[in-house]
Design a protein that fits this description.
This protein has about 100 residues and is mainly α. It has a domain of about 70 residues. It is built from two helices and no strands. Helix 1 packs antiparallel against helix 2. The termini are far apart.
């Protein structure tokens, strides 16, 4: 019995990076829209990861999936991306709450 080995290709990050050290956006600054767009692109990437994971789950259940490892990897990527997104959101809410507590 012989098994074929598939080479691993380079992995690119699914969620775009955002430079949190960048200066605060100024109203009317076109770069501010570009940074906000990259955040929304990260949420779109998260949704795409979850859709891929769900599609592979359906294929695994129906028996149409050749390699169950594809589903396992997609599910782990979607789960990790969701946990990261939730953690960033929680930190942003905490920061906003702390700012609102400050006395002017």
């Amino acid at each position: 019995m012989s098994f074929a080995v598939t080479p691993v290709t380079a992995v690119t990050p699914a969620v775009p990076t955002v430079d949190l050290g960048a200066p605060a956006p100024v109203a009317g600054d076109p770069a501010a829209g570009a940074r906000f767009d990259s955040v929304l692109g990260g949420i779109d990437a998260l949704q795409q990861l979850q859709s891929t994971s769900q599609g592979l789950a359906v294929k695994a259940v129906t028996g149409d999936l050749d390699d169950v490892h594809d589903y396992t990897i997609a599910a782990a990527e979607a789960s990790t991306a969701l946990e990261l997104t939730a953690a960033v959101r929680n930190k942003a809410v905490d920061a906003f709450t702390e700012i609102m507590r400050m006395q002017a």
